[in-house]
Amino acid sequence: MKHKKPWWKQPGIQIGAVLVAFIVIGGIIGGIFLTQTPPEQPIAFPHNRHVGIGASCLYCHAGATLGPSAGLPGIEKCWGCHQQVQKQSPELTKLAGYVERNEPIPWVPVAIQPEFVRFKHSPHVNAGLQCSACHGDLAKMTVAEAQKGQNMGWCLQCHKSSAPEQWTKLSDCATCHY
Ligand code: HEC
Ligand code: HEC
Ligand code: HEC
Ligand code: HEC
Ligand code: HEC
Fold it and tell me: What percent of the chain has pLDDT over 70?
């Protein structure tokens, strides 16, 4: 006689449990990133001083108008300036070390959404939104700081107020979730 599997081993239930675990873990990871502000970075990169010399956000985060990710600058971009800037400092010695070893700098992300969220920079930036609307004023920060409360309600609230004519699409679960 064929044994019936107990209810918790039924395929549908197992997939459901995996999904729930995925969402809970995603929430916890999101929570950790939102509460540790800001994490220790491998180099104390001063946004304020770079923005101060006139470097634009897009010079270092060029992906923001082109596609989903804004991207981070590679060591070649840093070194393009810093092999000419004469200044010596402990932080710049660390930078020189990464360049010498030809090793990417392991930056710790602070602006991050859970895996199950679909966010693309280009439609937002090309609609005229400033970086500061979502990331705060980087001209006042050294390393980037996580912004609090950037949850589903935050996305929906801005969609409702800034693009009411597209509300049907911009409030559809499938627009933001895979
Ligand atoms: C457009 C040129 C330019 C680029 C690109 C650039 N920097 Fe700088 N950086 C500067 C200048 C100019 C200063 C200011 C020097 C000063 O204050 O005397 C500076 C300052 C710094 C300092 C502070 C130095 C100190 O301790 O006083 C660090 C650290 C630094 N940069 C790291 C980086 C890293 C890492 C990158 C790549 C992600 C990078 N920089 C890219 C021009 C640049
Ligand atoms: C409408 C809100 C919004 C605007 C406007 C925006 N961002 Fe973001 N940014 C986000 C969100 C949300 C994330 C996290 C995305 C993820 O984890 O999928 C993020 C992530 C990032 C990251 C790290 C991950 C990546 O995409 O490389 C960088 C760097 C960044 N943004 C830079 C910028 C810059 C520069 C601008 C302006 C040109 C900008 N952002 C405009 C919301 C925004
Ligand atoms: C000279 C290059 C440079 C410029 C100019 C610059 N950034 Fe950055 N940005 C970096 C580097 C390097 C990091 C990684 C270190 C950190 O998190 O601060 C970073 C990180 C970030 C992050 C967090 C990314 C993540 O992975 O979570 C955001 C958001 C961001 N920058 C936004 C901006 C905005 C907005 C501007 C313009 C006001 C700007 N940046 C200008 C180099 C730059
Ligand atoms: C500061 C306002 C603002 C915030 C915050 C915001 N959005 Fe948007 N979003 C917009 C606007 C405006 C559009 C419409 C852009 C256009 O006209 O194409 C849009 C469009 C979109 C689209 C459709 C893009 C496409 O391919 O057409 C997606 C997906 C999206 N947003 C996801 C998100 C997610 C996920 C978040 C939160 C993590 C978020 N947005 C936060 C203003 C915002
Ligand atoms: C405008 C973008 C957007 C739309 C539309 C959207 N969501 Fe979300 N959702 C998010 C973001 C961003 C998160 C992650 C941050 C958070 O947990 O609030 C999230 C998280 C979630 C979570 C996990 C909650 C948690 O506590 O971890 C569930 C479940 C969810 N969404 C379901 C839905 C359903 C169902 C719909 C349609 C009715 C929907 N979402 C529409 C952006 C969106």
Answer: 79
